[in-house]
Design brief:
Blueprint lengths: L5 E6 L7 H15 L3 E6 L31 H9 L1 E7 L2 E2 L2 E2 L1 H8 L5 E2 L8 E2 L6 E8 L4 H7 L2 H11 L2 E9 L11 H27 L1
Parallel strand pairs: 1-2, 1-3, 3-8, 8-9
Antiparallel strand pairs: 4-5, 6-7
Length: 212
């Protein structure tokens, strides 16, 4: 493998080997087959405390992410994301939005914004989306309805934005309403196509660095 940069997959699902996790696995496996490094992080396995809204990470101006006062696994996770050239964000829809585990993670990413006391609104520290992102979700509703009427897609887009990534693909699996469901062949093919797309971005980035 020619680069230490990698594709990092974040799985916010409560179910390992469930639909969301399986889609992320297919994407990362395809990326790995194209001689790119990958890593999958299960939020379920990590010690991630709730944001206490102390706003310490929001006070210092500059492009660098604000430092959180909580000592848990968030710093390690964010460093891995920052070293990646692409990310895959997977979270299911629970009760109309991305699930609570992923929302907790999203709130702890607030240090990527600058919002000192007295200022009316936050400002993203680095508005340039240097990374690419694939967004993955699943819902009991049909895929078109889940994407259109739930807050899940908006939540994943917000997470990608604050992590400095531009979404370049979405894979939404609908009608996930049976226990121990498996991915359909069509979904597997879509996931693999997205994996090849991410591998292409890596090759393009490597070529650009060589030219420059």
């Amino acid at each position: 493998m020619n680069s230490t940069r990698k594709v990092v997959g974040i799985v916010g699902s409560y179910r390992k080997n469930g639909i969301t996790d399986s889609v992320v696995t297919e994407i990362l496996s395809t990326v790995a087959s194209q001689e790119c490094k990958t890593e999958k992080i299960y939020l379920l396995d990590k010690n991630i405390a709730f944001c206490t809204n102390c706003r310490a990470c929001l006070q210092v101006q500059g492009a660098k992410r604000g430092k959180c006062i909580l000592e848990d696994d968030m710093e390690e996770i964010l460093q891995k994301i920052e070293s990646a050239y692409c990310i895959v964000l997977g979270a299911p829809v629970n009760f109309g939005n991305i699930n609570a585990l992923t929302r907790k993670f999203l709130e702890r990413c607030v240090g990527y914004a600058y919002w000192p006391w007295g200022k009316g609104r936050p400002v993203i520290r680095n508005k340039k989306a240097a990374k690419k992102a694939i967004l993955v979700s699943a819902s009991a509703a049909p895929a078109w309805a889940g994407r259109t009427f739930s807050g899940g897609l908006g939540g994943l887009k917000k997470l990608a934005q604050i992590l400095g990534a531009k979404p370049v693909g979405v894979l939404w699996v609908g009608l996930v309403n049976k226990k121990d469901m498996q991915l359909s062949d069509k979904t597997v093919q879509k996931a693999r196509a997205l994996g090849r797309k991410l591998a292409t971005f890596r090759c393009s980035s490597a070529t650009k660095r060589t030219i420059n």
